[in-house]
Amino acid sequence: MSRVCYFYDQNVGEFDYGFGHPMKPLRNKLVHHLIMEYGIYKRLNIYKPWRATNEQMEMFHSKEYIDFLQRVTPEMALQPHFKKSLEEFNFTDDCPVFEGLYPFVQTVVGSSLGCAMKKL
């Protein structure tokens, strides 16, 4: 029987999409705790994801988008003159700008790339 590849970074649960948003990264932390407490980890190959580099992310996204992710802050997102940039890169109600957005994205992309590489 093949084992499941499970990528987990303990810092992911510290991010917050904001009040009212359905995505709650803290749930990842809670699920990980259950996996450990119930012994499910014994049937998994557990990996810590790396933070994807700009070059790795540019295989799938434009350099302009990656640059935007690196520099945008929650304060900037509240400024009216920044609205056009937010819309251009599809940061609407469902995709909020939050503190630590870029490291979060790097970790999620690193997890996805790691998983894809394990399946090769």
TrEMBL record:
Q: Gene3D superfamilies, from UniProt?
A: Histone deacetylase domain
Indicate the transmembrane segments per the record.
none
- Entry's Gene Ontology BP terms: heterochromatin formation
Q: Which residues form the Histone deacetylase domain?
A: 21-116
Organism of derivation: Entamoeba dispar (strain ATCC PRA-260 / SAW760)
Annotated Gene Ontology MF terms?
Answer: histone deacetylase activity
Q: Which domain of life is it from?
A: Eukaryota
- Record-linked InterPro entries: HDAC_I/II, His_deacetylse_dom, His_deacetylse_dom_sf, Ureohydrolase_dom_sf
Q: What is this protein called?
A: Histone deacetylase 1, 2, 3, putative
